[in-house]
Amino acid sequence: EVQLVESGGGLVQSGGSLRLSCAASGFNFSSYWMHWVRQAPGKGLVWVSRFNSDGSITTYADSVKGRFSISRDNAKNTLYLQMNSLRAEDTAVYYCTREGRYGEEAPYYFDHWGQGTLVTVSS
Amino acid sequence: IVLTQSPATLSLSPGERATLSCRASQNVLNYLAWYQQKPGQAPRLLIYDTSNRATGIPARFSGSGSGTDFTLTISSLEPEDFAVYYCQQRSNWPPYTFGQGTKLEIK
């Protein structure tokens, strides 16, 4: 069974930093692109960042570029999101998601999601 | 690409048919998905590539459309179907864009 478990959220002051983790299990983590998607309280889903399977491509939404850094440790089956210079508008639940692979069901869509971790930035 | 969902809120009764709309600002071909999100839960993939149901999704959920206009239909609403539904495109990414959501509530 595919499982994604996020951790590391919490309350941080504006300008501060936080590192989120996503522990993956039940699938060959190193073979999948992984993403972070966030959801501000009462709002919709917003894509944040992605990391390809072999670690050569990282991409960010304009709103977080230069402040957030995505990384992964395939040996530990873990995805990370380092968040620096946090702002009040970064307050959200952060979800770790898996992107389906070509040749499998739902290629290139978010086929599995973690339960999310809440980040609250106080101003 | 901007995805616009309508209506923002849809009030229906169990057993009724639900029709949710998603309109794209540009042609996304058939590269559109639908997700369901219940309160306090993560989103769940329902439909991908416009009309393909994900594993375990009941047959009462169906998707249709192409280009810029897409529809999610729930043929006969069950109590567990009342939730928020999001569309998402993968035609032109990144960024991966979602619609703003349609809340399906019990009338």
The number of helical runs of chain A is: 0
Name the shape of chain A in a single word: globular
Largest interface: A-B, 22 and 25 residues
Order of helices and strands of chain B: EEEEEEEEEEE
Shape of chain B: globular
Distance between the termini of chain B: 33 Å
How much helical structure, as a percent, in the residues of chain B?
A: under 10%
Q: Can you give the helix content of chain A as a percent range?
A: under 10%
What's the count of strands of chain A?
A: 11
Integer-rounded radius of gyration of chain A: 14 Å
Q: Would you identify the regions of chain B where 5 or more consecutive residues have pLDDT less than 50?
A: none
Question: Mean of the pLDDT scores of chain B?
Answer: 97
Number of strands of chain B: 11
Mean of all residue-level pLDDT scores of chain A? 96
State which percent range the strand residues of chain B make up.
over 45%
From the alpha carbons, calculate the radius of gyration of chain B and give it in angstroms.
13 Å
Q: What structural class results from the helix and strand content of chain A?
A: mainly beta
Explain this structure to me?
- The complex is a heterodimer of chains A (123) and B (107).
- Chain A has 123 residues and is mainly beta.
- Chain A contains no helices and eleven strands.
- Chain A has strands at residues 3-7, 10-13, 18-25, 34-39, 45-51, 58-60, 68-73, 78-83, 92-99, 110-113, 117-122.
- In chain A, strands 2, 4, 5, 6, 9, 10 and 11 form a seven-stranded mixed beta sheet that branches. Chain A has a four-stranded antiparallel beta sheet with strand order 1-3-8-7, with no helix packed on it.
- Chain A is globular and about 45 Å long.
- The mean pLDDT of chain A is 96.
- Chain B is globular and about 35 Å long.
- In chain B, 0% of the residues lie in helices and 50% in strands.
- Chain B starts with a strand and ends with a strand.
- Chain B is mostly beta strands and 107 residues long.
- Chain B is built from no helices and eleven strands.
- In chain B, the strands form two sheets. In chain B, strands 2, 4, 5, 6, 9, 10 and 11 form a seven-stranded mixed beta sheet that branches. Chain B has a four-stranded antiparallel beta sheet with strand order 1-3-8-7, with no helix packed on it.
- Chain A binds chain B through residues 35, 37, 44-47, 50, 59, 61-62, 95, 100, 105-106, 108-111, 113-116, and chain B through 31, 33, 35, 37, 41-45, 48-49, 52, 54-55, 86, 88, 90, 94-101.
